Amino acid sequence: MKITVAGTGYVGLSMAVLLSQNNEVTAVDIVPEKVGLINSRKSPIADQYIEKYLAEKPLQLTATTDWRSAYSSAEIVVIATPTNYDTEKNYFDTSSVESVIEQVSSVNDGCTIVIKSTVPVGFTVGLHKKFPDIAHRIIFSPEFLREGQALYDNLYPSRIIVGAPQEWEDSVQRANVFAELLQNGAIKQDIPTLHLNPTEAEAVKLFSNTYLALRVAYFNELDTYAEMKGLDARQIIDGVGLDPRIGSHYNNPSFGYGGYCLPKDTKQLLANYADVPNDIISAIVAANKTRKDYIADHIASKNPNIVGVYRLTMKSNSDNFRQSSIQGIMKRLSKRGIKVIIFEPTLKAGQPFFDYEVCGDFEEFKRRSDIIIANRMSAELSDVTDKVYTRDLYSRD
């Protein structure tokens, strides 16, 4: 099939690579540099499988900034544009999604439009009302990807979910076709596949990520308790995790949850709870702030003159530091008058990151720092472990 993917972030690029194994795929982005890299078979984002597939696989993939030609010839358009959370509106900024839909409808009167961007609960039904003439062509399919492991998680998906009004036969058929495309591109066989109404599919996405945030917050609060009481947090977590109902996964303490999805998705779900009684959902959002307050207070209590920040990224082998938890710690330390310097190889040395100094010389960074904070530990810091403060207990994400 001829497929166009709008957006080349983790979701869009992994989707484009997956589908281009068996289909003719065009990736659309507004950034010429990203388009150039993709056409040169280089990944603009850090993802081992995307890098490998672009370099080694015979993909039917091209990238362009020309949306008009890309959308006009497509049988399916997959929308994977960013939907950041607007704190003033208490709502995802879905303008990019709606903009693509308007562009597609202006040049193509038959293609299926698949929303992969994360959206508020009820958004797709709202689109059906806003665009009644093409409502049957708009479906929603949530993604469940890890940062830096996006293509892997498409090749070995935990589940495939497609959301279309189950009473609309044409929409259901379009959803079936898209689900089959995802199945055919995957390596994993017998993938659990659910066909839901779009609003329920949207809810699955937000509730899944909010549960993951809950789990991060839970083990972080366990870790806070252990550190304040002088206990060995790892021994406690190991013991707790042996209960098969809990498990020993997704339990490594951190400075807080961050990244592309969890901060914004938890806030959006809480906003969806505006008229619904709740305690847990609001506590999940509040817990992340509490954790950062505690970490910053604990570091400040050691009276450092200079705190070195080792990497801004949320995870190992990642180049993303959007909404990374360590940035929240930095802001809190700066407000206390503590100087913060950063070692982040993906940033240009000498050019400040906001108001923070970026130190390009690693040896100088280690020497100048009274304390080095690291959300995730690294062998690079093995010679200065006496300076390092981290809550990474398992040396993994």
Describe the protein in words:
It contains 14 helices and 15 strands. It is of the alpha/beta class and 397 residues long. The protein has two domains: 2-196, NAD(P)-binding Rossmann-like Domain (Rossmann fold); 231-389, 3-Layer(aba) Sandwich (Rossmann fold). The strands form four sheets. A six-stranded parallel β-sheet has the order 3-2-1-4-7-8, with helices on both faces. Strand 5 (85-86) and strand 6 (91-92) form a beta hairpin. Helix 9 crosses helix 11 (262-272) and helix 11 (262-272) packs across helix 12 (280-300). The model has no long low-confidence stretch (mean pLDDT 95).
**Beta strand %:** 5-15%
Structural class determined from secondary elements: alpha/beta
Sum up the overall morphology in one term.
Answer: globular
Q: What integer value in Å does the Rg equal? A: 22 Å
Number of strands: 15
Q: What is the chain-wise order of helices and strands?
A: EHEHHEHEEEHEHEHEHEHHHHEHEEHEE
The number of helical runs is: 14
